Amino acid sequence: MKPLQLSFSKSAALYEQLPPDKGNEVVIIGYSNVGKSSLINKICNHKGMAKTSRTPGRTQLLNVFEHDENSRLIDAPGYGFARVSAATRANWKAQLANYLSERQCLKGIIIVIDIRRGLREIDQMVINWSNQNDLPILLVLNKSDKISRAQQAKQALAIKQGTEHCTDRSIITSSCLKSTGMPLIIDQLQQWLTQHKKHT
Predict the structure, then answer these.
(1) In whole angstroms, what is the distance from residue 160 CA to residue 192 CA?
(2) Which domain holds residue 136?
(3) Does 72 map to a domain?
């Protein structure tokens, strides 16, 4: 498995503070306890690239990881479980909606889901925003090592059926502990980050 080349660039408190809206960009989002940081560390084979914590909601800034001068991965603040005020969560939600609808360089969205929990309300909202804006989605069903293969299949089927309305979505079952699904995730990221034409 060849890791994805990433380097930390900056952290931003607001979407307006992100790099210029050009090139290729992928955003990775999800609840605060689904293993986003561990996933980023795994796909680039660098344990310290994204900070991990046992305290959900640690990531409260937009972290920018450059792939090259024209492409980047954005790690968005976790939602739902974070120990922050309702006003802060509402602000994140509003900014995320604007970002998904206005960011022209965005080529794809990775939504990380704890396979044991399935789709939750905010996941569905992001999926609907993405679908409305004709943006491809990759649903990463993470922490698959925590349940049996039969349970994995059952959960994956339920999520597949719950997102059949999407025009462009892929589903990959993953485990950072066992590296399950990592080559497929890296391959999809490479495709999005090396696109030459703007997604329409």
Answers:
(1) 22
(2) 7-193
(3) yes
Confidence of residue 168 (pLDDT cuts 50, 70, 90): very high
Spatial strand order of the sheet with 106-114 comes to: 7-12, 62-68, 71-75, 24-30, 106-114, 137-142, 169-173
CB neighbours of residue 47 within 10 Å:
10
The answer as to whether 2 is a domain residue is: no
Task: Using alpha carbons, list the distances in angstroms from residue 94 to 14, 23, 98, 109.
Answer: 11, 24, 6, 17
Condensed to tens digits (0 to 9), the pLDDT of residues 133-163 reads 889 999 999 999 999 999 999 999 999 999 9
CATH number assigned to the domain comprising residue 136: 3.40.50.300
pLDDT at 42: 95
Task: Report whether 112 contacts 79 (CB < 8 A).
Answer: no
Number of domains comprising the chain:
1
Contact assessment for residue 79 and residue 92, using Cβ atoms and an 8 Å cutoff = yes
pLDDT digits (tens, 9 = 90+) for 8-37: 999 988 888 999 999 999 999 998 889 998
Number of other CB atoms surrounding residue 67 within 10 Å: 22
